[in-house]
């Protein structure tokens, strides 16, 4: 019998899912519960019930798991940020390692891919050099400043965060005091009125420089000079106060242009022996110490040689490419955010790197432009957003025929999908290493080295067809044929594996076929299909339909 809402059950948790929820099974149904740990025996109250899975709330801990520790944050249970604060760091690393391995196995099919031990972070608290804090009001109209609760836009008011440096906590308190006396009306998301939307903080760990940026629904704030005075008096290292206008009625956190109120327009930090300028809109890894280890590993995988060309896709402010470029090497970086491209160019000049070029645009577009110019990178490094690079960009990268490809990923599922695309194009993953960039959270980075597979033996044959000037060399035909790479067919097995890994339940191939048919996708006759079913076919539940659609989007079928 399926689980019902408000039902109380006893369950043993056996693992964690990608969002940091504990997972157990009750009479075959997967149950997902926040604040649980692998090995816990607990009483759980069902808060949402589907046909084959449910979400619950931890009511009573009957037997705590051996990996449990006492959480040291007063708002940990309300704030969804640190989903692993109640679990030992050793257990957290094991969970993240298993998550990467499961994705590579189930989604990518790379069961024999060598995987190095996860690189642990030297600091588990105070490592974040960036904080984006929403501003709201409680039921009494009092200003709240903190973090969103899990899967909601309800703000958990927070005076300090253990993941942040002390300077951020001081900046939050100074902003509160200024707002109490001088502040503009707080932005109300549902009505799109009010002015103060977010407080955005950045810090250069090596330089000690701090930037405070206020995101506003308008051009600026009243009493900006008083805000500068409050921040300068409270925050050691404050060197930049910025206003970021964002009038868009969307969930996009930042606006596109910033105005400097006081100090510099950004901050600087040192990484891998080079100095980088960071503006409010620049991408920069939030864990500097671990970023150095990540980039050093990427450089080892790239194995760049003197004089070679490196193509850095999704380059941000140029940190990856500039940090690994050897003497005499050339770098072409590609980034879609104009401000980040300007910062990358400035970083190149500041570090005395002459042979670096940065293009502003979509990665696929830029790669095509480089192909038109006849550029042939020796090594390509990709650090895409969570959605991954996709098959189209994988085909363009493979078309360059680089010696190596280094893929840096923040999502194991999209990584495994993209590695499968690359494998179909002849670029096989050789080794993977997980990197814990975000301790206490569910996120994990992975670095993978790919190289082109080579045949065991080659027979060179030169044949020409036709006679005289009209004859066509066979090697030209082969080049044309090699340039065409058919899109890999997405199988039902791939779809089923993705759904089981992400949602914890299985779907029948008939359900996938029904959803494809409803979406108007091409169908193929099965050789063993029967004309008449013995029993009426059941239809997929709404939950399974959505999961199948998600998988079809994931594999870029729709």
Give the topology.
Blueprint: E1 8-16, E2 22-26, E3 29-33, E4 41-49, E5 53-63, H1 89-108, E6 130-137, E7 143-148, E8 155-157, H2 166-182, E9 196-203, E10 210-216, H3 224-234, E11 238-245, E12 259-263, E13 267-271, E14 274-278, H4 288-302, E15 309-313, H5 319-324, E16 330-335, H6 338-350, E17 356-360, H7 363-373, E18 379-382, H8 390-399, E19 404-409, H9 412-424, E20 427-435, E21 445-452, E22 464-465, E23 472-473, H10 474-483, H11 492-503, H12 509-518, H13 542-554
Parallel strand pairs: 3-5, 10-11, 15-16, 15-18, 16-17, 18-19
Antiparallel strand pairs: 1-2, 1-4, 2-3, 4-5, 6-7, 6-9, 7-8, 9-10, 11-12, 13-14, 19-21, 20-21, 22-23
Descriptive notes:
29% of the residues lie in helices and 25% in strands. The protein has helices spanning 89-108, 166-182, 224-234, 288-302, 319-324, 338-350, 363-373, 390-399, 412-424, 474-483, 492-503, 509-518, 542-554; strands at residues 8-16, 22-26, 29-33, 41-49, 53-63, 130-137, 143-148, 155-157, 196-203, 210-216, 238-245, 259-263, 267-271, 274-278, 309-313, 330-335, 356-360, 379-382, 404-409, 427-435, 445-452, 464-465, 472-473. The strands form 5 sheets. A 7-stranded mixed beta sheet has the order 8-7-6-9-10-11-12, with helices on one face. A 7-stranded mixed beta sheet has the order 17-16-15-18-19-21-20, with helices on both faces. Strands 1-2-3-5-4 form a 5-stranded mixed beta barrel. α1 (89-108) runs parallel beside α9 (412-424), α1 (89-108) packs antiparallel against α11 and α2 (166-182) packs antiparallel against α3. Residues 455-487 and 524-534 have low confidence and may be disordered.
């Amino acid at each position: 019998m399926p689980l019902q809402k408000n039902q109380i059950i006893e369950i043993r948790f056996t693992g964690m899912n990608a969002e940091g929820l504990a997972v157990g099974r009750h009479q075959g149904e997967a149950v997902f519960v926040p604040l649980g740990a692998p090995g816990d025996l607990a009483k759980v109250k069902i808060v949402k019930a589907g046909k084959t899975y449910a979400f619950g709330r931890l009511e009573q801990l009957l037997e705590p798991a051996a990996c449990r520790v006492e959480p040291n944050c007063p708002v940990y249970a309300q704030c969804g940020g640190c989903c692993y604060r109640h679990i030992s760091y050793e257990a957290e690393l094991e969970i993240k390692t298993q998550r990467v391995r499961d994705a590579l196995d189930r989604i990518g099919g790379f069961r024999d891919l060598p995987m190095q031990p996860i690189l642990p972070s030297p600091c588990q608290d105070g490592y974040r050099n960036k904080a984006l804090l929403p501003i709201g009001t409680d039921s009494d109209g009092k200003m709240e400043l903190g973090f969103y609760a899990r899967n909601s836009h309800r703000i958990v008011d927070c005076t300090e965060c253990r993941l942040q440096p002390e300077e951020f906590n001081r900046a939050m308190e100074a902003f509160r005091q200024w707002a109490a006396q001088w502040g503009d009306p707080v932005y109300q998301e549902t009505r799109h009125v009010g002015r103060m939307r977010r407080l955005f903080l950045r810090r250069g760990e090596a330089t000690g420089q701090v930037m405070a940026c206020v995101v506003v629904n308008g051009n600026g704030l009243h009493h900006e000079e008083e805000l500068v005075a409050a921040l300068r008096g409270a925050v050691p290292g404050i060197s930049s106060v910025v206003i970021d206008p964002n009038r868009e009625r969307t969930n996009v956190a930042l606006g596109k242009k910033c105005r400097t109120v006081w100090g510099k327009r950004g901050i600087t930090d040192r990484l891998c022996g080079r100095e980088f300028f960071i503006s409010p809109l620049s991408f920069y890894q939030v864990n500097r110490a671990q970023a150095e280890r990540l980039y050093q590993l990427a450089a080892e995988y790239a194995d760049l040689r003197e004089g070679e060309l490196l193509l850095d896709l999704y380059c941000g402010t140029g940190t990856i490419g500039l940090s690994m470029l050897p003497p005499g090497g050339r770098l072409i970086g590609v980034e879609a955010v104009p401000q980040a491209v300007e910062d990358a160019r400035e970083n190149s000049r500041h570090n005395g790197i002459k042979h670096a070029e940065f293009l502003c645009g979509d990665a696929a577009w830029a790669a095509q432009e480089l192909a038109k110019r006849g550029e042939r990178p020796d090594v390509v490094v990709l650090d895409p957003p969570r959605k991954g690079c996709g098959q189209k960009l994988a085909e363009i990268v493979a078309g360059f025929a680089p010696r190596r490809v280094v893929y840096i990923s923040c999502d194991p599922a999209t990584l495994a999908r993209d590695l499968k695309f690359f494998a179909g194009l002849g670029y096989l993953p050789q080794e993977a290493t997980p990197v814990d960039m975000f301790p206490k959270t569910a996120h994990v980075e992975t670095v993978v080295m790919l190289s082109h597979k080579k045949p065991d033996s080659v027979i060179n044959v030169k044949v020409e067809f036709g006679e005289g000037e009209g004859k066509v060399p066979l090697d030209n035909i082969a080049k044309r044929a090699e340039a065409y790479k058919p899109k890999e067919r997405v199988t039902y097995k791939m779809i089923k594996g993705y759904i089981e890994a992400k949602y914890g339940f299985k779907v029948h191939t008939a359900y996938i076929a029904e959803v494809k048919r409803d979406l108007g996708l091409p169908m193929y006759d099965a050789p063993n299909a029967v004309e008449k079913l013995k029993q009426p076919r059941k239809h997929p539940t709404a939950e399974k339909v959505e999961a199948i659609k998600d998988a079809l989007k994931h594999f870029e079928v729709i």
